[in-house]
Amino acid sequence: MEATEQEPLDVESIRADFPILDREVGDGAPLVYLDNAATTQTPEQVIDVFSEYYRGYNANVHRGIHQLSQEASIAYEEAHDRLAEFIGADGREEVVFTKNTTESINLVAYAWGLNELGEGDAVVLSEMEHHSSFVTWQQIAERTGAEVRYIRVDDDGYLDMDHAAELIDEDAAMVSVVHASNVLGTVTPMRELADLAHDNDALILGDGAQSVPNRPVDVTDLDVDFYVFSGHKMAGPTGIGCLYGKQEVLEDMEPFLYGGDMIRRVTFEETTWNDLPWKYEAGTPLIAQGIGLAAAADYLDDVGMDAIQAHEERLTEYAYERLDEFDDVEIYGPPADDRGAVVAFNVDGIHAHDLASILNDHGVAIRAGDHCTQPLHQKLDIAASVRASFYFYNTMAEVDALVDSLDAARDIFG
Amino acid sequence: MSMGSDMYRQQILDHYRNPRNNGELGDATFSHEGYNPSCGDELEFDVKLEGDGETIERVAFRGDGCAISQASASMLSQKLPGMTLAEVKELDRDDVLDMLGVEVTPMRIKCAVLSEKVVQDGAKIYEGEADVDQTSTEDDD
């Protein structure tokens, strides 16, 4: 593949929406931002919506009779409709705003897990879960006496689906699996896992933190019971995430946080809960962030999720192939043409953190460490790796900048 | 060239490639290990005290991690013999950075100070002042 080949997106005009991409770092090196799996940059259109809220109609929601509160309430509620549409949910009842993916998983773990799990139950995870899921279910299992099982990841980075079918048996109560790995880039067969779970009367939670931003996702097609993702990885603000839950599941579940706005009626004797999704949004919610996230969904749909996925696949394939030319580079995960928009690798003889420090001098921002997946790194038998992750505003030339700057590290450590 | 690459001066790379006092002491008075979760660096130090029970006679260490953490351990292992445990406990971040002799970028300070923290915690445990299984750079002093 050539870097000059025609691209599915007009990246030049897209980049104009992201002023941060023009900045320099260090001694004047142009920024090459390749840490998108950690957080993505925010377009002007989202920043504008955010500041319009604070400039024009900042007020608490669901409380005031006054006009500002009405305007804020409507915008905040409609943001739920927008996100429901974005992921193919039936409506706002199925979309709970949270702080991030981690809080979404914790909400399910506390509200459902603590109440429903016990001795003899199993929670089935994969070996490549992010700590947000791994640690949470491990702790809930310890408290409830449930067992945690881990679906094997094979040498090519794929889930061993025969092993999955073994582990998801009649004892399985919850299957919680990442949809796209933040390290290996593996995209898991979520629908197949959902069918396995449902055949055994288990629920399934899909971690969409690395898939919702990068490819079209339809939770109804996936038939998942829960699906979780973060706003700051999809061109939205920090501090906002989503929990999708099937309406009947969310209706049956106990609340997570108690307080204002999540109640219908409070007396000295008892309290009844508000309608969905507000039952799960206690206290003053993330109003500006929620409205901003809806603006991010608008922006992504304007660009087009199919085009975003196609562009990122080209970037990823090109990065993989260029890195794979070097004998001293080891890449982790599935082949170039079958992965999400991340490439984790190591350069022989150079620790990931040393590599990231040197690349930073060349303006290249990548992640180095265990990427919140220590068990997976233990399995790969490496202490750390560097990870380049792409978004639709990245260019082939930026991939070249990454690959070419590795030579600077080789010069120092060679 | 700006700060990040400035860290990798010849002296740092030399200690990284040829760590001094690398290995184990069969007659160690105490040993202690530590971990830097942000980087994945690991270090274990063996310390042999002189007959007075407070002056360091020899040290050895083994570890795995980035150049900054391993060079820091190697350089510290040369600095420690002759120091008393009281003096070791007085060492602070600036002493370590002075010893390294390079500008360490803020995100890499934890790599630089791991060796110092491991030896200090080892000394405190030996003297009964602390009780930690494993030192972590995430724990505050």
From TrEMBL, chain A:
Its EC number is 2.8.1.7. The keyword Transferase applies. GO terms for molecular function: cysteine desulfurase activity; pyridoxal phosphate binding. Keywords: Pyridoxal phosphate, Transferase. PROSITE patterns: AA_TRANSFER_CLASS_5 (PS00595). It catalyses: (sulfur carrier)-H + L-cysteine = (sulfur carrier)-SH + L-alanine. One of its GO terms (biological process) is cysteine metabolic process. Pfam families: Aminotran_5 (PF00266). Its cofactor is pyridoxal 5'-phosphate. Residues 32-402 form the Aminotransferase class V domain. The keyword Oxidoreductase does not apply. Belongs to the class-V pyridoxal-phosphate-dependent aminotransferase family. Csd subfamily. NCBIfam families: sufS. Catalyzes the removal of elemental sulfur and selenium atoms from L-cysteine, L-cystine, L-selenocysteine, and L-selenocystine to produce L-alanine. This is Cysteine desulfurase.
From TrEMBL, chain B:
It comes from the Archaea. Signal peptide: none annotated. GO terms for molecular function: iron ion binding; iron-sulfur cluster binding. GO terms for biological process: iron-sulfur cluster assembly. Residues 7-129 form the NIF system FeS cluster assembly NifU N-terminal domain. Gene3D superfamilies: 3.90.1010.10. PANTHER family: IRON-SULFUR CLUSTER ASSEMBLY ENZYME NIFU HOMOLOG (PTHR10093). NCBIfam families: SUF_scaf_2. This is SUF system NifU family Fe-S cluster assembly protein. It comes from Halobacterium bonnevillei.
